[in-house]
């Protein structure tokens, strides 16, 4: 199990940033790789977009294919300069901010700050949060506590489950998180 060297927080598999403190875990200072004849290669991780911007673009199969491919740009281009800027996944972005194209926030906008701390059973607290997609893991854990189980996912993120077992009823929910600790959505939910 890996832990952040900056704050000691448990890390997601293949995390590039700590989901708790935002510290970079990448081996090099620059996310840009493969300098070649004055150009740099930007991977999906390196490319930056405004929050929610890819949702409409990916409905077009041609554009979706483009975002899966690396992009070569001039070293001094605006896109290369954006890629060099650090990304802090612990701070939900505003509409004018830039997020990595492989972050859930590229597809889903942050649903907004909670007006009050949710109360009650696990399922009631989650319901009071509104949309879970786009919320940072740390925010969800602050409201409902740590998950009962956690596993890495094939895309470098995490799949985490919360359970409440009562005498007459039970509830469980499983959420998917990207490599930055941003919730991609509900995988399963069951109330008995």
Descriptive overview:
The structure is a single chain. This protein is α+β, with helices and mostly antiparallel strands and 192 residues long. It has a domain at 122-191: Beta-lactamase Inhibitory Protein, Chain:B, domain 1. The protein is built from 5 helices and 9 strands; from the N terminus they run βββααβαβααββββ. The strands form 3 sheets. The chain has a 4-stranded antiparallel sheet, with no helix packed on it. It has a 3-stranded antiparallel sheet with strand order 1-2-4, covered by helices on one side. The two termini are 33 Å apart.
SSE layout and pairings?
Elements (H helix, E strand, L loop, with lengths): L32 E4 L2 E4 L5 E2 L3 H5 L3 H7 L3 E4 L3 H7 L14 E2 L21 H7 L8 H8 L4 E4 L5 E8 L4 E8 L5 E9 L1
Antiparallel strand pairs: 1-2, 2-4, 3-5, 6-7, 7-8, 8-9
Low-confidence stretches: 28-34
Q: Helical amount among residues, as a percent range?
A: 10-25%
Tally of contiguous helical segments: 5
**The first-level CATH class name of the domain at 122-191:** Alpha Beta
Main beta-sheet strand count, sense and barrel state? 4 strands, antiparallel
Q: What value does the Rg take, in angstroms?
A: 18 Å
Helix-strand pattern, N to C? EEEHHEHEHHEEEE
Overall pLDDT score: 83
Count of DSSP E strands?
Answer: 9
Strand content: 15-25%
- The end-to-end distance, rounded to whole angstroms, is 33 Å
Helix and strand content put the structural class at: alpha+beta
CATH topology of the domain at 122-191: Beta-lactamase Inhibitory Protein, Chain:B, domain 1
Task: Write down the overall geometry.
Answer: elongated
- Biggest sheet: strands side by side, in what order? 6-7-8-9
What's the architecture of the domain at 122-191, going by CATH?
A: 2-Layer Sandwich
